[in-house]
Every structure is written in structure tokens, then in C-alpha cells.
Design a protein that fits this description.
- A hairpin with a 5-residue loop joins strand 3 and strand 4.
- The chain has 28 helices and 14 strands.
- The chain is 48% helix and 9% strand.
- Helix 5 packs across helix 7, helix 9 runs parallel beside helix 11 and helix 25 runs antiparallel to helix 26.
- The radius of gyration is 39 Å and the shape is elongated.
- Among the domains are: 116 residues, Conserved hypothetical protein from pyrococcus furiosus pfu- 392566-001, ParB domain, CATH 3.90.1530; 39 residues; 83 residues, no CATH class.
- The strands form 4 sheets. A 5-stranded mixed beta sheet has the order 1-5-3-4-2. A 4-stranded mixed beta sheet has the order 9-13-14-10. A 3-stranded antiparallel beta sheet has the order 6-8-7.
- It is an alpha+beta fold.
């Protein structure tokens, strides 16, 4: 073999040259180097199948035009680098003979250029089917195929999945009717009939996301709160199938059996409800996937309790350790695993002790219950302290008017008497204090008038009285909770106007704020006045603002024509700087699917550009709505009804900061 290398000098002869005698030719037309992945793939291929193509070389000459004994590689530089990689890994020797073709007749630069330009790459569809043939006919695993071609097993699995797409659609792809991205979207399922059905139903917009959505419309995304709550292991153990997308992050895939998933959710929630009822002693516990907003029950809240001296000392020690650890690692970009674990332990212990600082009355637990519902983040949410009407204790109203009577039956709501007060006579009935009822009314009417004058001159006390009336009606039960003020606090429900509004993050934040205040208030409404007086000014005003906020009603219902109420709502929104982008996002469900195509295009013009709207103008309604949702995500666009003051003008001109073009998917 060495003899052939030294004696075969004719152009076109096959020679074997030691690897360490081969060099890159300065005349090589390819200037951008091969990627590491390409070299890895070549090395794996050569290791599995040998060197399938010869290198083309010419002798290296020095300044005196004498051969140096080395050879310059005109064609096959990637293969040379792959063999060097194999030598570095000790798979072959540095002196391994490499089969080459000696070419001294042609210009090295020209043949290098021809090698790189005059070639036709294999169609990707042929690659997919070739991988499939290896897997089926030679029973090679993804790992085996990956090792032979220098790619990862995941790449092999992706190509095998693409090869399983309907032959009809594969031919459309070969003919240029589908892009690779669109073909990848079809590969999310192996049901050829369903793939072809979706393809036939595609409209102008053939974006991959639309294809993927149509193929999984009867499935439940792994991001869904139900899927996160149950988990893939429990779902699959129950016989459920999961469809996975190998070409994108699918967050756990798609759960194919929605009915089974819902059953598993209810079973798990009911198990939690039973455990809570048994461990905490509630009268009842109910499990619901969605919070039952129309339950019609009153709610009781826990009250603060003091920790035992031992727990108090332990809490101080744990908090001190937490604070010290926080100070020590305040500037650390990443926490060591043991420190991170310690933080978790300390936080859990602080939460455990904090939970012991509030408790329900034993009587409340004995007559109340718990709702166990599925939270928006896929966790179980426990809402405690709901009292069914039949479990209510008799109220003061019942004692005065008789059980079942209305509070209004004996309550005078008008500030003026409905008829003249008769003059008292000697035979007028006397009260236990020696005064007749009519005289009591007379005297207290004068006192009421005096209170009105005096209270009108004492704004601070007037504010206290208003806060007292509102808090009493907001948090307590009874017939005269407004106190001596003829103030009525109404809290209109919004659930009937916007489906799902009570399960939004904003509604949860409002409920949490309400619960925080409820836990701080005294148990008896008779103790409410000194409680409010004892609050600092900021806390008192915060409580006042919360109660006032619950009475706001700015819903524009078709049967309720209240232009002054709407104008007041607009003024309040501007005063508080309301930014609805924090509470609402335009989606197909919330807006675009519920307005006309003209409205959708108007929104796109405002948020993006006229060109973007023009490119969408010929779409059908559903694809147009979906495209608008994608395009307007993150723009801060709001419909006019949700804009506040100067924000309306800013929203109308948002298109000036958005890209001009709308990305139309390849057809």
C-alpha cells in the first residue's frame, strides 16, 4: 500500500495517503468552515459505512516547485476533518491510509467550485422515507440510526414521525404545496384520514399553528389546569393516551380523552375534600372543578389567635435564620442546591406557623363547609367557612320580628314620616322608661336633626360614620347594619355579564383582599366602631376604599340606560389611572371571535399597520380572528370601551411602534 502511494503518479490514479500527510488546499472554494454538527455526522457515517467517496488531492509544492511529501485536499475537506476527529478520539491512527484520487490535470479551485455548486441535494421527503425504511426493514432503533448518521436520536424520531404523515400530504409537500413547518404540524397525529380532512378544510391561512390547533381541538393541552392537576402518570395509568408534538415544546403534549381527564380531576378533588372534612372537622365539603359562584351562602372567616410562647420563640428563630441567609446570598446570581433547599424548608416552616395565627370558631366549623375547587394554576384551592341557609344561627332580626320576617317589615327607610305625628295625650301608652313611643320619636327626631348639623361640621367623624356603615354591611349579617345612616351598600354581581369573570386573576386578587380584611375585623358588629376608630389613617382609608370599590357598577347593560353613571365611571377611571391591559387581553374568545371582520381589521390597523390589515382582508372570519390574536399579542391594544383618558389616544396610535408586515404563512 505504501509502495502504491509512492509510485502511482499518474493523474486520476487512486492512492492511499497517510491522514497526517493531508492538508486543506488554499484553493478550496468553500470559505465558510464546516459546522461541528456536520463533521460529527460525517465521522459517524464513515465509522459505520466507511469512506464512500474518495478525496481528490494534488501534491503540495514548496517555493522551489518541489513536492513536500504532503498533499492538498481539493475535494473532501469535510471528510478529512471527520477522519481527524476520529483520530483525536483514538478510533483510528494519525497515519491511517486514506483513499484519494490524484488530480494534477485540473485546476484545484475550479474542481472545488464544481463540487460545491453542481450538486442536487436530496429532497427532505426522501430522507424521511429512507430513515423509515431503515427502521422497518432492518429493525434499527432511533439510537442505532442516530449513531450511523451522526445525529441525535431526537432528530431521528422527528424524521420518522414526518415519514408517517399521509402519503397524500407527503406528495403535496414534494410538489411545494406545503412547507416543512406545515408538514411538521400535520405530524402531531398519525391519523391519515384526520390529517387529510384538516388539509381539505384549511382556508387562506395555512399557518402551522392553525393546523396544529385544528388537529388537537378535541384534546386537552398539557398546559391546561386539569392536565397539570392530574399529571401525565396518573392519566396514562388510567388508560389515557397522550399525543405529543416532537417538533415544538408542547408542555406535556395533548390529553386525548377529555372525559377521562375530567373524571380523574373530580376523583382527586373529592378525595381532597374528604380528607379536609375529616382532618379539620367541617360539617360538609364539596368538590367542584369550577367555583360554584351562585351558591347563595354567607361566609365566615377565621379570627387572629396568639401563638403559644414556644411557637412564638420558634417563629422568631426561623425568621432570623431566613433573614440571615437572605442577606448572605443577596447578590448571588444562582443559589447552591443545598441553600435553595434550606430556603424552601424555612419558608414552609414560616407558613406553617403563620397558619396557626388565625383560627375559626368551633361553632363556625361545626355548621360551615368547604369548597374544594380547581385553581387556575392547576392546584387544589380550598375555600372555607360557607354556611348553608339551614345552618344559620338566629339573627337579631329574627329575635325582633320573628324568624322568617323581612328586615324591611319593621324598618323605616325614609328620612321623613309618612304621616303627621299625632299629639300625645294623657292616655298615650307609656314605655318602660316612662315615655310614650310618640314622645320618643319626637325627641329623637330633634336629636337626629342636631346630629345632621353637627356631623356636617365634622368631616372626620362623618367619614368614620360612613366607613362604619359600609364595613358593617359588607362584612356582617343583620337587619340594621347601616347603623343610623340611611346608606345602603349594594354589591352587584358581574358573573351574569361576563362568562368566567369570577375565575380571573383580578377576581381572585379582589377576593383575597376581601378575605384579608375579614380576618382582621371583630367577630361582633357591636365592636366595629372602636375597631375602626383604632385603625391608623392609612388603614382606615384602605378599608373604606375597598368597601366603596365593591359597590362600583359601570356595566352598560342594554336595559340600563344610565349615561351619568357611565360618565362618572369614566371620571373615576381617569382619576385612578386605570390601565385595563393589566386585567384584559384581546383574544379570539374575549373579543375577535365576537365582532365583525370590519372591527377586527380596524383593530389590526390601529395596533399594527394598514398593510397588515390589507394582507388579512380576504381571510375568512375564524382565521382572521386567530391571526389578529397572534398579531396583537403584547401590543397593549384595547377596544375603545376599555380605554382610559389619554390611553385612548395612545392605543389608537399604537401602530406607529409595530412592525409593518404581517407574516403570511407559506402556501
Amino acid at each position: 500500500m505504501r509502495k502504491q502511494t509512492e509510485t502511482s503518479r499518474d493523474s486520476g490514479a487512486v492512492v492511499f495517503i497517510p491522514l497526517n500527510k493531508l492538508k486543506k488546499s488554499p484553493k478550496n472554494a468553500r470559505k465558510i468552515p464546516h459546522s461541528e454538527a456536520e463533521i460529527e455526522a460525517l465521522a459517524a457515517s464513515i465509522a459505520a459505512k466507511g469512506l464512500l467517496q474518495n478525496l481528490v488531492v494534488e501534491p503540495e509544492r514548496n517555493a522551489n516547485d518541489r513536492e513536500t511529501g504532503c498533499y492538498l485536499v481539493s475535494i473532501g475537506e469535510g471528510r478529512r476533518l471527520a477522519q481527524l476527529l476520529r483520530a483525536k478520539r483514538k478510533e483510528i491512527k494519525k497515519t491511517e491510509p486514506i483513499r484519494c484520487v490524484l488530480d494534477t490535470a485540473n485546476d484545484a479551485h475550479e474542481i472545488s467550485l464544481a463540487e460545491n455548486v453542481i450538486r442536487t441535494n436530496m429532497h427532505p421527503a426522501d430522507q424521511f422515507e429512507a430513515f423509515k425504511k431503515l427502521a422497518e426493514e432492518r429493525a434499527l432503533s432511533a439510537e442505532d440510526i442516530a449513531a450511523r448518521f451522526g445525529v441525535t436520536p431526537q432528530v431521528v424520531r422527528q424524521r420518522l414521525r414526518l415519514a408517517a404523515v399521509s402519503p397524500t400530504l407527503m406528495q403535496v409537500y414534494r410538489n411545494g404545496g406545503l412547507s416543512l413547518e406545515q408538514l411538521m404540524a400535520f405530524a402531531i397525529t398519525d391519523d391519515h384520514a384526520r390529517q387529510e380532512q384538516v388539509f381539505d378544510n384549511l382556508s387562506y391561512n395555512k399557518d402551522a399553528s392553525i393546523i396544529r390547533r385544528m388537529l388537537t381541538e378535541t384534546h386537552v393541552s398539557g398546559r391546561d389546569r386539569r392536565a397539570r392537576f392530574v399529571g401525565t402518570e396518573a392519566y396514562e395509568a388510567a388508560g389515557g393516551a397522550i399525543v405529543r408534538d416532537l417538533f415544538s415544546e408542547d408542555y406535556g403534549g395533548y390529553f386525548a380523552d377529555a372525559g377521562l381527564l375530567d373524571w380523574l380531576v373530580r376523583e382527586k378533588l373529592q378525595s381532597i375534600a374528604a380528607d379536609v372534612r375529616e382532618s379539620e372537622g367541617w360539617k360538609w365539603a364539596e368538590a367542584h372543578i369550577d367555583y360554584p359562584h351562585a351558591h347563595g351562602m354567607r361566609r365566615v372567616y377565621p379570627h387572629p389567635v396568639s401563638l403559644s410562647p414556644e411557637d412564638e420563640e420558634w417563629l422568631k428563630a426561623v425568621q432570623a435564620e431566613f433573614d440571615a441567609l437572605t442577606a448572605e446570598y443577596e447578590d448571588a446570581e444562582e443559589l447552591p442546591d443545598d441553600v435553595d433547599a434550606k430556603f424552601g424548608e424555612l419558608e414552609a416552616e414560616i407558613e406553617r406557623l403563620a397558619a396557626k395565627q388565625e383560627a375559626y370558631e368551633a361553632t363556625d366549623i361545626g355548621r360551615s363547609g368547604v369548597f374544594v375547587v380547581l385553581n387556575h394554576d392547576g392546584t387544589a384551592r380550598l375555600e372555607r367557612g360557607f354556611v348553608r341557609p339551614g345552618d344559620e344561627q338566629p339573627t337579631e332580626s329574627d329575635a325582633i320580628y320573628g324568624e322568617g320576617s323581612s328586615a324591611q317589615d319593621g324598618e323605616q327607610t325614609s328620612g321623613d314620616p309618612v304621616s303627621p305625628t299625632p299629639i300625645a295625650g294623657d292616655d298615650e301608652p307609656q314605655t318602660e322608661k316612662g315615655l310614650s313611643d310618640l314622645l320618643v320619636c319626637d325627641l329623637t327626631a330633634h336629636r337626629t336633626l342636631g346630629l345632621r348639623v353637627a356631623l356636617g361640621e365634622s368631616p372626620d367623624v362623618a367619614l368614620l360614620a360612613m366607613i362604619h356603615a359600609l364595613v358593617a354591611q359588607t362584612f356582617f349579617e343583620g337587619y340594621d347594619l347601616g347603623g343610623c345612616l340611611s346608606v345602603k351598600s349594594e354589591r352587584p354581581s358581574l358573573a351574569g355579564h361576563a362568562d368566567g369573570i369570577e375565575d380571573t386573576a383580578a377576581a381572585k386578587a379582589l377576593a383575597d383582599r376581601h378575605g384579608t380584611w375579614a380576618r382582621q375585623l371583630p367577630r361582633d358588629v357591636g365592636d366595629l366602631w372602636p375597631f375602626i376608630v383604632g385603625l391608623d389613617a392609612d388603614s382606615r382609608m384602605a378599608l373604606f376604599a375597598h368597601c366603596i370599590a365593591l359597590t362600583v357598577n359601570a356595566v352598560r347593560a342594554p336595559w340600563d340606560k344610565s349615561p351619568r353613571a357611565w360618565a362618572t365611571a369614566d371620571a373615576i377611571a381617569e382619576a385612578v389611572g386605570l390601565d385595563m391591559t393589566a386585567f384584559w387581553t384581546p383574544t379570539v374568545r374575549s373579543y375577535f371571535g365576537r365582532v365583525s371582520k370590519a372591527r377586527i381589521l380596524e383593530a389590526v390597523r390601529e395596533a399594527a399597520s394598514d398593510d397588515a390589515a390589507a394582507q388579512m382582508a380576504n381571510m375568512k372570519k375564524q382565521p382572521m380572528a386567530e391571526a389578529a390574536e397572534q398579531l396583537l399579542t403584547g401590543t397593549g391594544w384595547l377596544p375603545e370601551l376599555l380605554r382610559t383618558g389619554n390611553m385612548a389616544q395612545a392605543s389608537a396610535h399604537a401602530g406607529a411602534q409595530q412592525p409593518d408586515a404581517y407574516p403570511i404563512a407559506a402556501e
